[in-house]
Predict the structure.
Amino acid sequence: MTDKTPKSQTEQEKKEHNYNLWKEVTKDITPLKGKNIAKNQRKPKTKATLKAKTDTSHTPTTTRTKNTYTPPEVKSTEVDHRTSQRLKRGKIPLEGRLDLHGKTQNEAYDALLDFIPHAYSQGKRCVLIITGKGSRQDSLSSSLPPKIGVLKQKTPEWLNTSPLNAYVLKTETARQIHGGEGAIYVLLRRER
């Protein structure tokens, strides 16, 4: 086929073009007998439907009374589903551990800058970073949500940014046996 999309089209127009092209290619195909195949109900999205989906001005806001912070994870298409699930379940053997308890932000960042590249150069695949949960305040005496520890919040950010993101493939909150919300599994890239 020599039908190409013009370079000046927007992303939405390209998607619509590809969808229509696919419909044209598959119009003469008959489904196999005995197979339950879902009918394609997808329609190209218009700007109006996209705007309606993103309009959140009428959604109610709730106040959090429980510490529900989840660290941002390194999203990677390089990790297959099985490996991702094994990491999440704590099934990948831990080959290193770094405890950041009692460190200042600068000390913790420097420790990460030393630890992660060193673990990577040694060929380690999965390491545990213990950040702690942060200061505990009595949530019953205050209407404010509990404070999130600075290191618990900053460590995933540091792992997601340069220079550490060159070594990190994926992160997950650790299982309770390894520290729960106060620790992070870090899946390192393989050295090439």
